Amino acid sequence: MTHAVDLHAHALVGPAEGLVADEPALARSRAAEARAAGPESSTVNREQIAAIAPALADPARRLAAMDRAGLDVQLVSPMPIHHYWADAPLAEKYARTVNEGILTHCAAAPDRLLGLGTVPLQHPSLAVAELTRAVSEGLRGVEISTYVDGRELSDPSLEPFWARAEELGAIVFVHPWGCTLGERLDLAYLSNTIGNPLETTLALSRLIFSGLLDRRPGLRVLAAHGGGYLPVYSSRADHAWSSRRDARTCALRPSEYLRRFWYDSLVYTGDALDRLVSAVGADRVVLGTDYPFDMGVRDPLDRLALADLSEADADAVRGGNATALLGLS
Questions:
Q1: For residues 72 and 318, is the Cβ–Cβ distance under 8 A?
Q2: Domain Amidohydrolase-related: where (predicted)?
Q3: Which domain covers residue 299, as residue numbers?
Q4: pLDDT tens-digit readout, 211-250
């Protein structure tokens, strides 16, 4: 049996957040997030962050949680709050501080903890430079959001970033933070339960329909939360591609690109995991816990066992796919 490898977990780098704490733009961003979440969910969000802050920052707590969950290796990514509003000098310093903090965090157990960093995508040339530096210093890639301060991930200005990511073989973990639908989702935590998977669905769809995956077939894109709604309803995109000339903007049917991505297993139930595996293939799914957030799971292996997978497929999801993606021995 392979090692159990979790590719979706987070850490908080306190010194980096200290760099932006007094910025007026941060206050505006948080106010917008609060309006989008609604007052009740905003209150719960603040309580949750306060409760999990020690787990986000302490490698010893992380390792103990991994042991309880039966996890051998974890890929640690930053809190997905990249502050894309920051100007170039601040953005460069922030990204570098985050990346150094992730490396330090993972150095507590280098045989068990691996890291992803961040890049200032709002400044594409800086993003390319920081991606290059981060990978050279030992990070396995970077986490990015689904939307960059008014620009889509498929925006032509980001082509150099994608080109460099492909060249380096870096993992690019697409993870949303909130939803661009704003206050329409301000009830009952819809900002996350619907908003996050919807954002991922939109971001991946734009990567497909923009032709980026035709130009960059070697990209290694990992999608959070099972890829959102895309894997289980790509048939509608296929129909549009077949029926309308304005939708035929990529070389292949949209569903044929599903296997160009990797997906975490954070879909909660055995039935949902079966549907994901059926849509994308067992060799494209990896474990994900979203540690230590409340929308994550503490028992990923128990949930994997609920799926109707063959022993070989379950072993691939457990760690075989992640081992190959990370280049582990």
A1: no
A2: 5-328
A3: 5-326
A4: 999 999 999 999 999 999 999 999 999 999 999 999 999 9
Q: How many domains are there within the chain?
A: 1
Q: What are phi and psi of 274, to 5 degrees?
A: -60, -45
Alpha-carbon span 194 to 198, nearest angstrom: 6
Q: Which long-range contacts (CB under 8 A, 24 or more apart) does 269-272 make?
A: 269/303, 269/306, 270/303, 270/305, 270/306, 270/307, 270/308, 271/307, 272/226
Tokens describing residue 222 = 């990992």
CATH number at residue 242: 3.20.20.140
Q: Is it true that the peptide bond before 292 is cis, omega within 30 degrees of 0?
A: yes
Q: Where are the alpha helices (DSSP H) in 38-87?
A: 39-57, 59-69
Each residue of 124-171: pLDDT tens digit?
A: 999 999 999 999 999 999 999 999 999 999 999 999 999 999 999 999
